[in-house]
Amino acid sequence: GRGAAAIYNLVYTPLKRVTPFAALPGALIGALPPAMGWAAAGGYLQDPSIHLVAFFFFLWQIPHFWLLLLFYGQDYRDGGMPSLLDRFDRAQVLRLTFLWIAAVSAAALLLPLTPLFERPWLAYVLAGAGALVVARAVALLKLTAPGVAEAAAPFRRACRLRFMEINTFALLV
Asked: Tell me, what's the pLDDT at 131?
């Protein structure tokens, strides 16, 4: 736990002021708590099951963060923080976010392959929920049409809803 806290505070936090890509190493740090809990409960870190769980949570953190960025982009600019929106236009970030949401859903499909799933029907629940999250995330792609992303209220609403959906999916997992 101390090592993860040190990496978070000494590496990830300072990187946020330097690069708009700090979310990637931050997601690696964020994937450690499930592994720490696994080890604390007596699990072995070599077990592929925890690797898949940590991989899911690594992937999940990126759209989680980027949706916040899309929603609060002006706050990042006002605070002088570098953001992905400094390097890519909003339509590109929306497309990237959609792809990461799809990757999160695909990674969740790997989890039923582990011994963590004792009931096969749960795999169908997970697959259905993942498909729903991806289908709903298509709304992000619709925001990339010319003139659409400039409408503040629908844009913010779509980002807020996708944020709630991806987080609810993570809770389900």
From this structure: 97
